[in-house]
Amino acid sequence: MNFVRQVFTGCRLLERCCGVVPPSGPNDPILVICGEAPGRTEDLVGEPFAGRSGEVLDDALHLIQVPRRQIRILNVLGCAPPYDRDPRPDEIKACRTAWIQAEIDQHKNVPWVLLGATAIKAIGGASHGVRNNIWASWVSPDGLRVHAVYHPAAILRGMSRTDVLAD
Length: 167
Hints:
Elements: H1 3-7, H2 12-16, E1 31-35, H3 40-45, H4 52-63, E2 71-75, H5 89-106, E3 112-115, H6 117-122, E4 137-139, E5 145-149, H7 152-156, H8 162-166
Parallel strand pairs: 1-2, 1-3, 3-5
Antiparallel strand pairs: 4-5
């Protein structure tokens, strides 16, 4: 049985997407990067940050000389929401129960970089989105060492630059 059917049962999003996009990277990473949800490309390919946002992320990783193969990459949601809409609280809760909590438990001793407002709130436990938390570091309610940065999609929209993400 594949990852999709093992961890998700009864999720509305699973009915509309190509399948769950599982985490990528090693089980013993030096860093965990967590975004919001798969986009269209990630949904089709089945890998997180495989589209344009992934190119921005790869550029930032290149700037800090950290290869992707050393990083665990995942999203708060496993499935792409329709029309690229924001994740709903019930969807975030379903994904956390199904598999995110296991990622949190497994990678508690590794720093987490939270990309964007959804990850900042869902994983970091901080409200008020990116603007009030950008560049901040704290310990999440789950005991994770987290750091908040812009999502690569914000860079694609001109809100920031890749070198700023790398910093």
